Amino acid sequence: MVEFLGGRLLRMGITLWAIASVVFLATRLTGNPIDFLMPEGLDAASRREMIAYWGLDRSVAEQYWLFWRSLLSGDFGLGLMERRPVATIFTERLWQSASLLVATLALTICVGVPVGILAAVWRGQARGSAVLFTAFLGYAIPNFVLAILLLLVFSYTLHWLPSAGSATFAHYIMPTVALSAYFVAALVRYTRNAMLDVLSQDYMRTARAKGLPESSIILHHGLRNALIPVITVLGLQITTLVSGAVVVETVFAWNGVGDLLVGATLRRDYPVLQFGVLVVASAVIVVNLLVDLAYALVDPRVRLAGA
Amino acid sequence: MTDTLDPKIAFAPQRKPRGRFVLPAGMNALVVAAALLALALMILAVLAPVLAPFDPDQQKLLARLRPPLGFERANPAHWLGNDQLGRDLLSRCLYGLRLTLALALFGTLIGLVIGVAFGLVAGQLGGRVDALIMGLVDIKLSLPFTLVALLVIALAGTDVAVLICVLGVAYWAHFARLVRAQVLGLREMPFIEAARAAGATRWHIATVHMIPNIVSPVVVMASLNFSNLILLESALSFLGLGVQPPTATLGSMVGQGRDYMASAPWIVVVPAVVIVLVSLAAMLLGDFLRDHFDVRLRER
Q: N or C: less crowded end of chain A, CB within 10 Å?
């Protein structure tokens, strides 16, 4: 287990180092950032001054060293638009994004798993096919299209739900639904397949032969075993979830990290983007590691394979 | 990063008998419908310059915000209505569809070439090269790609060439992983061993003996990635980070029509419906191919 964990941590470290370095190189190699940052028609003297101020006149190696030194000392620079420390800008918005992601995960699991079980139990029946087809629709409709259609119906036509912001519970409904549709659909499909695999196992027949009630067979013997692949799939989908949040937040003017990053891209606000990529990538990698660990703890076969 | 736990990419070389689809009962008709829809959309895209009744970028301010046929104030010449600048929505949808499909196709091909090359090299050479390539694959797969795309676009600017590159690198790692797994399996097969014994070079084995044997999983993955790229391109264009105005893509039409949603919802609804149709057709066909050839791939 220690070896397994050590190997994973080492790879995680290498991955983070590589990401940070690529981000650094990308921002330095595509021209002098100062030309994007400053207004046009800047005179040569001020330009030199600004270049010296941002440390852009030093060698790439030296800049790379400084980049790591400031990263490790927790100094991530100032956002170009807001003129405030990037870390502060992010902290303010992190909570907003996190609450949306948690709401989405909760909705995904609460709807996806039960519906997936039903779809497995209803296999070969009309209602089972109906569930699957609905799941397919949820899978195929891009989140921003769903978000726009929801806005059109519930905000602009029926005036039931607010179209932008995140102040009340009502504000959460549409973004959460738009973001979770894909994951609910994916989870329904995975849970169904996993349940179908489990339902045909010998121990399920044994449970039936023992005379256990059907609900207990499905929930205790079936779902428990079916959940293992489902957990993995959820873990694998974290990157997709984060990508989706970027788009959905923009549609609903959700004051989160995704909205911030899209804005930063449009305005070429490097410090914000650089920090955003680093923070979100690290978060995703740590979550993936946790999922791996959870999986290894649940399933002894994985522990053997990983060590 | 998730090597040991992946619902592993596996390909059973023996095909299941034809006609046994894994899709549930009643879905076969759906697959046929999806195929017809896909065919229709492709024809529309290819023939867009012939079929489009108007120049997609031509503005007619007098005709702005006219609704589609069947609504009050509709202009009979513009079947699907006009947008905020009086441009014909039908023509814009046709050209947008054409561009969206073309971009997704280019992106898929680029990703396929890069991924297959890396996968073949990693699987055939093994050792350090393999470790390096798979390390890159792990890094690629552990990042939310939209973030990478945002960074690249902020640095390189919004340009069609940049967009094609972004779409091209979006899924190379998936191809590389698939191909490497295939190659590792093939290497142990007797006919490859025989080729090696006969003195064939690794290059010869890779190009002559291996590529033909990995075509079907690669094609299936390409079809799945194609539909994912349609979504990625639409999302980027929707955010204003893809193809720039006035050129129409389906995503940018939805994105720019957002401001008129309250007064002229059709500007958004028409391209949104087209996106859903394209995505449905592409995904149904991709799933069908995957199930039919019994290829188990990682979901996007």
A: N
pTM: 0.82
Within the 265-284 window of chain B, which residues sit less than 8 Å (CB to CB) from chain A?
265, 268-269, 272, 275-276, 279-280, 283-284
Name the closest residue on chain B to residue A20, using Cα atoms: B139
What is the widest separation between alpha-carbon atoms in chain B? 77
Residue of B54 and B97 predicted with greater confidence = B97
B300 touches A at CB < 8 Å: yes
Q: Show Cβ contacts of residue A192 under 8 Å, excluding neighbours closer than 6 positions.
A: A116, A117, A119, A120, A123, A132
Alpha-carbon dihedral angle through residues B20, B21, B23, B24, given to the nearest 10 degrees: -20
The vertex-B154 CA angle with B118 and B267, nearest 5°, equals 100
Q: Is B3 strand, coil or helix?
A: coil
The residues near A284 (Cβ < 8 Å, ≥ 6 apart) are: A238, A239, A242, B142, B143, B144
Q: Is the dihedral of CA B86, B91, B94, B99 positive or negative?
A: negative
CA A273 to chain centre: 16
Query: Element (H or E) spanning B296, and its range?
Result: strand B295-296
Nearest to B239 among A26, A186, A247 (CB): A247
Which single residue is written with the structure tokens 């694959």?
Answer: B137
Concatenated DSSP letters of B163-199:
HHHHHHHHSHHHHHHHHHHHHHHHHTSHHHHHHHHTT
* B181 contacts B12 by C-beta, under 8 angstroms: no
How far apart are alpha carbons B14 and B43 in whole angstroms?
34
pLDDT tens figures, A125-171: 888 888 888 888 888 888 899 999 998 888 888 888 887 777 788 88
- A247 and B231 in contact by Cβ < 8 A? no
Any CB–CB contact under 8 A between A132 and chain B?
yes
Report how far Cα B186 is from the mean position of its chain's Cα atoms. Answer: 28
**Which residues does A99 contact at the CB level (< 8 Å), separation at least 6?**
A166, A172
Q: Is the ipTM of this complex over 0.85?
A: no
Residue B50 sits at φ, ψ, to 5 deg, of -80, -40
Q: Under a CB-based contact definition with an 8 Å cutoff, are residues B173 and B143 in contact? A: no
